[in-house]
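Hi F.,

I've been meaning to write this up properly since the lab meeting, where we talked about keeping a consistent format for the predictions we share between groups. The idea is simple: the sequence comes first, exactly as it goes in, then the structure tokens exactly as they come out, then a line or two of notes. No screenshots and no reformatting. I'm using this chain as the first example so we have something concrete to point to.
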Amino acid sequence: MVLNTLPQWSYSEAAVQALALEMQADPRVVVVGEDVGRGGIFGQYKGLQAQFGPQRVIDTPISEAAIMGGGVGMALAGLRPVVEMRVVDFALCAMDEIVNQAAKNRYMFGGQGRVPLVARMPMGIWDASAAQHSQSLEAWFAHLPGLVVVCPGNPQDNHSLLRAALQSGDPVIYLEHKTLWGQTGAVDVNLSVPLGKAAVQRVGEQVTLVSWSRQLLACQTACEALAAQGISVELIDLRTIWPWDRETVLNSCGKTGHLLVVHEAVQAAGFGAEIAATVAEQLGARVQRLGAPRIPVGYSPGLEAVSRIGPEAIASAVHQLLAPRKGI
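Output, unedited:
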């Protein structure tokens, strides 16, 4: 298919189209959550209730624990629910249902029960939304056995990975960035993107740069600036946090000998540490992490900026990584 014949959809529209296709193909797919009937707060369900009816696009009261608990019950009863949490910060009210019910059921009951549930939890810094609406918590969910964790970074991936998540048969924590909804791009509805497979966005020779979600935009800008300085960076979009694509990352780091992991989440105990440790253990490559300081995201622009990792900081970290070590 020629690229310019593909539809140009926003990140939000790509998700709507993915859901519509899966709901047409499988009557077990339902949507449940606050405001889904009117399209969701980001337009990620726009038109779906009119198309499929209120029995399949179900508005709920304001109770995240009840919404998630109902979704787990639906899944155990044979449906494939999409559970809307509005933002990941609000999902913390439903952690018992996620951690002790959805994640563990298949293991605790020897596979007799499955929880094919997709929990959509928009993540990340949301402009001027402060500490309770701006968190990136992918590392929390990656730590929990039984959960799949996905972070799509562009419209194509938000379409293909949402469809893959709905077809996976396991509970998926699906983390779309709160500020990507208007980003547009070509979307091929026939392109399948498997869970657990990273994408090499830029080929390079000197440094491997691994990131995901909105932080990729800053990484891309940094790569352009570094290329102008003669530094060749290989940029990898991890896409799925768990399971993560060790093979692609290790192959790249084996070539470059250097790894920088960048994420919007707080650096302390972030998922970048898992990637860095794996690469150091397997290859002995030189590794470095770059994440937000361990502070709440501030409301004012000045305070919020302290939590953001921009292209300049990424380029500086690459220079540090390539600099000769003291005493060597």
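Notes:
The two ends are 52 Å apart (CA to CA).
The CA atoms of residues 299 and 310 lie 18 Å apart.

If this format works for you, I'll send the rest the same way.

G.
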